[in-house]
Task: inverse folding
């Protein structure tokens, strides 16, 4: 079974795919179809959504058909001897021209942090959903199917073009902004 840490890894991978969508034209995700699927069932009834289900659903239900936007970010990094520097916060921003909405996906692998967003046009913050758990090793199970589940969070403070979003430690956030 997958834990909260796995959900953050999957969300970070999906941010990377969106941020490189100018080069990545198709990507396969084996976990959607094999024995390590994001939804577990048992004979006779019962099911639970694995932790990785939630970021997959957030991207699939919101990023499809949108435009990936280039962003600039000044984000602290952590050092890995094996892989070099990596940012504590991975993010992707999409624009839905049909609904005039900006969609922000953010993975915070570190302590609680502030994410400052500045848009090129006036926007209104409409939704913030967070996937988090104080125990990074927490898994969902038949006995605790909703141990790690997304919750609505407080919308960002700010107005017009600039917003400040509080990102919980070791969390995945999905935010929606409506262009005015």
Result:
């Amino acid at each position: 079974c997958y834990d909260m840490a796995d959900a953050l890894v999957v969300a970070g991978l999906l941010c990377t795919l969106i941020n490189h969508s100018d080069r990545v034209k198709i990507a396969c995700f084996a976990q959607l179809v094999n024995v390590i699927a994001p939804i577990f069932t048992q004979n006779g009834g019962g099911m639970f959504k694995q932790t990785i289900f939630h970021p997959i659903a957030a991207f699939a239900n919101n990023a499809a058909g949108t435009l990936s936007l280039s962003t600039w970010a000044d984000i602290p990094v952590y050092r890995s001897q094996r892989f070099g520097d990596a940012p504590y916060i991975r993010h992707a921003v999409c624009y839905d021209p049909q609904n005039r909405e900006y969609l922000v996906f953010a993975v915070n692998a570190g302590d609680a942090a502030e994410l400052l967003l500045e848009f090129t046009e006036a926007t209104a913050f409409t939704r913030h959903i967070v996937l988090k758990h104080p125990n990074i090793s927490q898994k969902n199970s038949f006995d605790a199917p909703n141990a790690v589940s997304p919750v609505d969070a407080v919308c960002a403070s700010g107005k017009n073009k600039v917003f400040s979003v509080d990102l919980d430690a070791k969390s995945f956030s999905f935010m929606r902004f409506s262009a005015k």
About this structure: The chain has two helices and 13 strands. The longest strand covers residues 123-132.
